[in-house]
Amino acid sequence: MSGVGALRSVGLRTAPTTRGLRRWLLRPEAPAAVFLVVLLAAFSLAADRFLTPDNLESILVQVAVLGIIALAVNQVILAGEIDISVGSMLGLCAVAVGTVATATGGLLAPLAAGVATGVLAGAVNGLLVTLGRIPSIIVTLGMLYALRGVILLVTGGTWITQIPDETRVLGLAKLAGVSLPVFVMFALFLIVNAVSRNSTWGRDVFAVGGNRRAARLAGLAIDRTRLLAFALVGAFVGIAATIYVGRAGSVQTNAGEGLELQVIAAVVIGGTSIAGGRGSALAPVIGAVLIGVILNGMILVGVPGVWQSAVLGALILLAVTTDALRRRLVGGAA
Amino acid sequence: MSAIEASAQSRVEHRAAAAVHPPIFRLAGVTKRFGGVTAVEAVDFDLRRGEVHAQVGENGAGKSTLVKLVGGLYVPDEGRVEVGGEVVQFSSPRDSEAAGIAMIPQELDLFLELSAAENLFVGRRRPRRPWGALDWRQMEARAREQLGALGVEFDVEAPVERLSMANRQIMLIAKALMGDAAAVVMDEPTSSLTEREAARLFRIIDELTARGVGVVYISHRLGEVFMVADRITVLRDGQHVRTAPASELDSEEVVRLMVGRSLDELFSRGGHEAGDVALEVRGLTRTGEFEDIDLTVRHGEVVGIAGLIGAGRTELAQTIFGVRAAERGEVLVDGEPVELDSPAAAMEAGIGYVPEERQSQGLVLPFTIAANISLSILGRLSRLGFVASQRERETADGFAEQLAIRGARVSEPVSRLSGGNQQKVVLAKSLAGGPQVLLLDEPTRGVDVGAKSEIYRLIDRLASEGRAIVLISSELEEVLSMADRVLVMREGRVSAELSREEATQERVIAAATGVAVGEDEGAEGAAPAASVDTER
Amino acid sequence: MSANQLRPLDVLKGVRFTRELVLLCLLIVLVVVLGQMSPVFFTVGNLLNTSRFFVEVGLIALGMTLIIITGGIDLSVGAAMALVAVTVGLAHQSGVPMALALVLGLAVGLAAGLFNGLMITRLDLHPLVVTLGTFALFRGIALGVSGGGAVSSFPQWFEYFGQFYLGPVPGQLFVFIAAVTAVWLLLSRTPFGRYVYAIGNNEEAARFSGVPVRRVKVVLYTGIGVLVSMAAVIYTSRVSTSRADFGAGLELDVISAVVLGGASIYGGSGTIAGTVLGVVIIATLRNGLSLAGVETTWQVFLLGVLLIAAVFVNEFFRRREE
Amino acid sequence: GETGQGPQQSAKEGGKIICLMPKLVGIPYFEASKTGAEEAAKELKVELTYNGPTEGKAALQVEMIEQLIQRQCGAISVAANDPDALAPAMKKAKEAGIATGAWDADVKKDARDVFVNQATFEAVGKQLVDIMSKQTGEKGDFLVVTGSLTAPNQRAWLEEMKAHMADKYPDMKVAAVEPGEENLQKGIDVTRDYLKANPDTAGVFGITSVALPGAAEAVEQAGLDGKVKVTGLTTPNEMKDYIKKGTVEEFVLWNPVDLGYLAVHVAKAQLDKKLPKSGKFKAGRLGEVEVVKPDEVLLGPPIVFNKDNIGEYDF
Ligand SMILES: Nc1ncnc2c1ncn2[C@@H]1O[C@H](COP(=O)(O)OP(=O)(O)OP(=O)(O)O)[C@@H](O)[C@H]1O
Ligand SMILES: Nc1ncnc2c1ncn2[C@@H]1O[C@H](COP(=O)(O)OP(=O)(O)OP(=O)(O)O)[C@@H](O)[C@H]1O
Ligand SMILES: [Mg+2]
Ligand SMILES: [Mg+2]
Fold it and tell me: I need a labelling partner for C109 at 20 to 30 A (CA). Which of B245, B297, C277, D132 fits?
């Protein structure tokens, strides 16, 4: 039986040929992707050493820590919450990784320590948000301060140096010609993407973030969904910390300072809505890569140090303006 | 008699036998209080297999509250909920659903960012592939099938936010019908539907009851109630008034029970002398929504706009009001062009708008009733730049009395009011600015008979005061009885303009669907659903 | 325990636990405890002097409260502050008369806010997204034009903005009190204030009611730009130097104070009284702990815990009430 | 920490406490100074408060100085994040009759009685350039990685380095200054990116304790060790690996332990009004140190760390 005439004509209002492109443009990460391509082209023209496989790989290596954390924070934001404690959390996990690494060596034990520390911190965030019913911005703002305090109290301000080489493989080694940080980031992306699209939790994240009341009416386990997202952030920060320690070779007490805003920037520039419920797992990766490309490209083009922050800001604004432009063209929500 | 009524007739008969079964669920002496307000007090209510048990009552009578008690949304303060003869304690909607009770809630709570297909499956077992991943293709296929059964077809992969209100409502119906529920509770399921979609719903109800499923049906449209209901329960001020087989009651009796007194005939407007042109719309266009709309409304005239879902009526009204940007065309009030990009400018020019979505567009729920009513006229209520609260209160009290807003004082949050009373607050707000042109988009949606006739009277009064009124409504009867002139929209264009005399149900439907319906009234052999679906 | 002994929660029965009351109790407890920990804490001189350090955060927090009530946020305030300070400094250095330099600074702050406001409203972008961009942009411009250098040779009279005392009372406290009064009246008594709450609770309904949503937002972001300018001038005067790294991390201090004061980050609720209490509590805590000789490391930790605890206590009472 | 002394006690004894404020706490450099300061305090039997902000921000120091005035410290000595910003507060302390001083990084001259200088900007700048010139044959383009582009001491070193190059090594040139933002990872990334774009860079200066290890790590990761020379300023513990591997041959720093130790000795002398205006000053185990100007005490020449001596230091 056919549908109502008027409804059918709604479908006819858009010409069939543009439909595929239009669909694609409606995806949340489309504007950032377009802007990324434009930027890549621009930098390639401006700096001849930019578009080399080696340089492109090193951009990915540089954004791996940011990208991995953003992948998880993206889930929290999709679920309608926020986590701004990741900077301090990274510092704390790095301390855990470094401490265990200098004590036992090896890769697995430090990695496990980092992940366990992260999950613990993430679970505290999650429990305070769900059971304590405190808004996540306050919980994680508090944790941003509190965890930084913990780091200073635990380390007494000294760095952890001389991380053994076998711990550093996750930061430095290559697998089949690809640096491990890149490998890990893409593996985690594939996992999160699959989970996000094909698991109950992954879908519930969207529902919980999109309409909390309706989610409750539908009987979704709202608290468990959010708790898991916060714990996931912890786990990913733990993995990222191991890469961080591997790449840096030592642990500073201020490791991760200011990271929280970069992570949020990566997520929202990528196209996930800060209001929750709208976005994709690809968004944070594109956002992180975009930031990495800007930072790298500026140096290769030779932007003076004092002007780099201004250029970064201007390009971020341009990137988000692309989204506004898209909305003018094909509609869709902010 | 319309085609819908005819098909209803046959239904009632084959269900008569079902009445002997034990109840699917029973509420025994339930009471529910909210702070000081007793929403439901010591009410008994039950639902049997295969019957349609309707609930009627004025706004705020406690209908929604009562069904939320079996829906697992509220726990009764007193009394018991029994399912299949056993006392149950639902702590969430999920419990209730597990017990075989499905709910179509009054408020359209959907996941706007998710696709229609996914919306149907949230919180449910989703089809999976052998290796555990979700089977999207099957989900979409089943969604299409489910919606197809309700006679609609739209892109189930697109986010729900791109659907019209009517389609959203159909989504919720489809969602409730997905499981194998023993009972389906429908809280004003047709409030956003035109008669055509409503007719499809009735056919579905028919099929459900034939399978032994029980249906609780809440509606303010008494005509519908008498068409579908086997039994009717009347509530008043949270109390049970009477439960009786539909055959033992008639509309007058029900209305009398609802309001506690007998009510005059439903209000109908007489003819009126129209004055000068008040509102003139020329060539207004928003591509994809509506095109080249011309419209004139005179002082003292009520122009009804009818049409199917997605005909573009809401968009048109909102563009005239400046909420949406017009692409082309102009709007004049009393011959003066109106700036087309801000509601403030439209209001300045004397246009008022009552939006169709009460909660999201009409009200600031945490605000008090007074603050809602005064929101558009704060400038006028201010002295030396500060809001004069005395004046604000007096204005609000005036409207509360004039429109009989019941349930809370004007200094209380508007969220404490029942749906219908909230609607009156929205009306009050648009009237506060003293508009010469009033655009009413589904002004009686979810409003009880009493209030409805008050609103009709109000519209009549406003018109006789010389205001120009545009009445958009999906209730054909409403348009036909209230309008001096009827415009019919189809696919974003005006497909017919009918005078009061020319406007009959058949002609409006024909113009709305683009299909000529036989003038012969005896054509009910074809149910309306079938008759309009012959196109293409 | 004797039978007629009143249980503490009984005594409090009937008292409405507004957020502000909880915060006020917290402040009193803090003052008493800190007074015990350090004898100098509880002197008029110290308490007044403490105010010199929260006025900048406090001024900006007033504007941020209104923005947060509308459901927005401004992360660029610290960077904008640097931009204003650098403008004033460089203008002065290049020979512009100081008074004109201050006007220039004000104009730059206003322009920065206006830029945020226009980006947000014209392009329909989320404030967080826009101000994350301007967070980098404003500081970047400040850094770029100043080349990272400092300006410090301000005329004597400029010191009045940040180092003036009337008796024992620091001059900027008057500025703050005046600003608090003005913003409080604006928010609680005027149509504009009502619009702010309406937008935060239901922007669509506000728009349908003829509230000039965009204009209100532009005014708010421009307004916070002005407050930032004032803060930047006071700060520049207080430390008698201007540099591009001023106000780093200020946004988090401001937001901490506002959310501690009870404004919902989701928009719709918040009060000036709450924000002022939030500002004062954080300042008092820092001052008192420092005077008591508690290491800054512990202070950071305690600040975080306090933030969570204060909101938790508030939630607890709110739920009890329901 | 044991340095956060009981408040009652300190107030009673007021006027005898020495308050030493680092730029920030929680970094190895100032933790090392703390060790030295505590050592001196024990030796001299004075009460010491060693506390600073957790971030290197002048504004936070201003606030803390005012609190130290309230706490009636006998002497306040600060390592200033900003020479100008701290001046009003330090003047206030002076007016309150407190012995004022600066150590590690000066405040404006009229805002303190004495400055305990570890090494002049000029000496450090020259030393860095000289070390580099030896390794690169007195020529080449160089990258400087800073902590922050606004930090006054780093800016001063940079100026001295540029001046010295112009003066003595016309073929050496600072080609770029990249901000490392006191962040190890960021330091590594900017160095790597820069070297990629400018492969003929002769060497990298890392002029903070975070920038130098970052630069060394980046050069090593890029496989350029030996080809691109690295030197700068930092504490030795972080550098032991790089010295051992030869990525870095030599780098410069004074001994922060001794600096903290000396600062307390000077403050104590101020309290006792025994600080000479010129000549020599006896500072415990350091022996005689020089009073170079009426108000400046000099720790001595900076230490050049290399393979041979780095094992002797632990900070
Ligand atoms: N959550 C709530 N808090 C406070 N009062 C409530 C709440 N829900 C309902 N009420 C009150 O309970 C009464 C019954 O409301 P209910 O929504 O059940 O009415 P209804 O019969 O469904 O009305 P309508 O036809 O307008 O939908 C009303 O007076 C209403 O104000
Ligand atoms: N591209 C599209 N995809 C899906 N739906 C669309 C699309 N474009 C428009 N629509 C729907 O068509 C509707 C246009 O009709 P509108 O809602 O104005 O009709 P109406 O006559 O007021 O009907 P209603 O009675 O539902 O209010 C829009 O609400 C929108 O949801
Ligand atoms: Mg209801
Ligand atoms: Mg409509």
Answer: C277
Ligand 2 pocket, residue B340 CB under 6 Å:
no
The list of chain A residues with pLDDT below 70 reads 1-19, 331-334
Whether ipTM > 0.90 holds is no
Q: Looking at chain B, which residue has its C-alpha nearest residue A332? A: B162
Burial class (CB in 10 A: 0-12, 13-18, 19+), D227: middle
Yes or no, beta carbons of B310 and A2 under 8 Å apart:
no
Query: CA dihedral in degrees (A176, A180, A184, A185; nearest 10)?
Result: -110
CB spacing of C126 vs A132 below 8 angstroms: no
Give the dihedral of Cα atoms C268, C272, C277, C279; nearest 10 deg. 90
Up-side HSE of residue A9: CA atoms within 13 Å toward CB?
20
Nearest to D252 by CA among D268, D262, D239: D239
* Closest listed residue to residue B92, CA positions, set B101, B83, B104, B84: B101
B164 C-alpha vs ligand 2 centroid, how far in Å? 4
Compute the distance between CA of residue C183 and CA of residue B266 in angstroms, rounded to an integer: 52
Contact B30, B43 (CB under 8 A): yes
Place of tokens 């017919």: B496
CA distance D275 to A307: 46
Rg of the Cα trace of chain B? 23
Give Cα D232 to chain centroid, integer Å.
12
pLDDT in tens, B427-461: 999 999 899 999 999 998 877 777 788 888 888 98
d(CA A140, CA A82): 8
B491 interaction partners in chain A (CB closer than 8 Å) = 5-6, 9
User: Rounded to 5 degrees, what are φ and ψ at C203?
Assistant: -65, -40
A201, A228 in Cβ contact below 8 A? yes
Residue B396 neighbours by CB under 8 Å, 6+ apart: B369, B370, B373, B374, B410, B428
pLDDT digits (tens, 9 = 90+) for B8-18: 454 454 454 44
**Domain spans of chain A, in order of start:** 28-325
Q: Give the residue from A320, A275, A322, A299 showing the smallest Cα distance to A50.
A: A299
Nearby residues of C13 by Cβ (< 8 Å), 6 or more positions away: none
pLDDT in tens, C118-170: 999 999 899 998 999 999 999 999 999 999 888 988 888 888 888 788 888 88
b/e per residue, D155-187, with b = 16+ CB within 10 A?
A: bbbbebbbebbeeebeebebebbbbbbbbbbbb
CATH topology assigned to domain A28-325 = ABC transporter involved in vitamin B12 uptake, BtuC (1.10.3470)
**Rounded CA separation D298/A232 (Å):** 53
